[in-house]
Amino acid sequence: MEITVDFCLFETICCDIIGLVKKERDGMLFDIPIWKIVIDAYFVWVLTIFLVKFVISNKKMMSIGISFLFVYLLAYVANLLDLLVSGPVLAYLAQWMPVLAIIIMAPDIRRSLEIVWKADARNDVLVMGSERTKLCIVDAAIYLSSQKIGALMTIEKHNTLDQYSERAIMMNSEVSKEVLINIFTPNTPLHDGAVIIRGDSILCAGAYFVLSDNENFDKTMGSRHRAGLGISEITDSMTVIVSEETGHISIAIEGIMLKINDRDKLMEYVNMFMK
Amino acid sequence: MKKLFYMIIEPLKSFANRNFSEKFSVIYHKNKWIAYMVSLLITVVILTLAYVIPNL
Q1: Residue B53 contacts A, CB cutoff 8 Å
Q2: Interval A152-182: pLDDT, tens
Q3: Chain A residues near residue B56 by CB distance under 8 angstroms
Q4: How far apart are CA A114 and CA A226, in angstroms?
Q5: What CATH number did the domain enclosing A185 receive?
Q6: What is the DSSP string of chain A?
Q7: Residues A8-23: pLDDT tens digits?
């Protein structure tokens, strides 16, 4: 009996496929003109590329995206197993998650959309600074620290920082210890904000970043440190921060802040990051 | 054993601690074409769900 049922199923599938092939000959597939399906597929592909790039452009967005996938997977499994309690709860959660994400991630969504619409040509070829640039950054940080002059120097890597530089003062000058010191000298027009370093050049000065909302962050740290940490949370850049109050040097990378008061240690981190 | 126990008790946390977004970010920046391939794969799945399965 079972064999007959299986055979019937096999026969049905074969008939379906033969039917589809016959229809395909008439320029139809699933009773829909093939050209319509091709256009539909193209539109879906274009929208999916946009969505994938949108999610990938920001690490926070990607974390949210992965959490979404996880919840949808759980909801699917719960639905498949017809679970009485977790099934409806997860289905409800899955239904409302996009709305929740829009509310929670509104600023990040705006930034990611800005990135997606930009040409990302720069990121195709990664150019990190030369040995001279590394030395200039370290020497400048050490000097500024000794003089207790606050500084924020962000070194760009894969993730473009164009959206921040556009609102800052463009410089496009070669990195040098003297220029960096001059930028951060108090009571000068450029001293407030961050310097963005791309390869061997200072892209801009006076850039403002979104402050980190990390709950575990030391409350005594100022907004300069919070800004450095904030940019390290959403991009793969490294930021060298010099405290105005204490003269301590810190680096922010991957959402972590490390205090460094040793020239060699700073050089080691800069070397590791810019290799 | 401890990891397995941890995974059973707190699956969400252990899943989050694996730092998937960081790994995906590194892979994507090394291979830009991955975004297009992933999009193509998602498109195929969507179209299969929309066209093929209801007509079987």
Answers
A1: no
A2: 999 998 777 887 888 889 988 999 999 999 9
A3: 13, 16
A4: 23
A5: 3.40.1700.10
A6: -HHHHHHHHHHHHHHHHHHHHHHHHTTEETTEEHHHHHHHHHHHHHHHHHHHHHHHT-HHHHHHHHHHHHHHHHHHHHHHTT-SSHHHHHHHHHHHHHHHHHHHTHHHHHHHHHHHTS--GGGGS-----HHHHHHHHHHHHHHHHTT--EEEEE--SS--HHHHTTSEEEEEE--HHHHHHHHSTTSTTSSSEEEEETTEEEEEEE--PPP--TTS-TTS-HHHHHHHHHHHHSS-EEEEE-TTT--EEEEETTEEEEE--HHHHHHHHHHHT-
A7: 555 665 556 555 555 5
Domain ranges (residues) in chain B: 2-55
Whether residue A266 sits in one domain with residue A243: yes
A with B: how many residue pairs have Cβ under 8 Å apart? 62
Query: Does B46 contact A44 at a Cβ distance shorter than 8 Å?
Result: yes
Q: Which member of A37, A51, A236 has the closest CB to residue B25?
A: A236
Token couple for A246: 């204490």
Give me the interface pTM, i.e. the ipTM: 0.77
Q: How far B9 CA lies from chain A's nearest CA (Å)?
A: 16
Token code pair at residue A233: 């949370």
